[in-house]
Amino acid sequence: MATLFIGDAWANWGVAGVILAPLYVGILVQMFFIICLKVKKTPLSLAILVYYSVKNGLDNNFNLFIYDADKIMFFILLIIICSMIKILEKIATKRNVIIKQCNS
User: Fold this and answer.
1) 53/36 Cα distance (integer angstroms)
2) Structural domain count of the chain
3) Are 62 and 73 members of one domain?
């Protein structure tokens, strides 16, 4: 049965879930919104914004706000991609310096 996240929190944790779930979800949503406002707008950042805006409605299961394997794998993949980009930029910069030194 699909309910708002608060219905799932009630089913799993009772009154404590009803009190703490909105605070937890509110903090997560606000942090995501602030990060989206502050990050440089690139195609990758806009794609992430759209992905999470569509995937994470407030009618989802509350357990997905606590632990979602898709999000964890996505962030791991994102970190790997960003790390590879930085490594490749350093290699390209180093090659340009070597080529310039050889031409001088």
Assistant:
1) 11
2) 2
3) no
Structure tokens at 16: 């404590």
Residue 3's closest CA among 51, 64, 49, 68? 64
Q: Which residues contact 32 (CB under 8 A, 6 or more apart)?
A: 52
Residues 26-43 pLDDT 10s:
898 888 888 878 888 888
pTM for the whole thing? 0.62
pLDDT band, very low/low/confident/very high, at 1 (cuts 50, 70, 90): low
pLDDT confidence of residue 52: 77
Q: For residues 47 and 77, state if they share a domain.
A: no
Radius of gyration of the chain (CA): 21
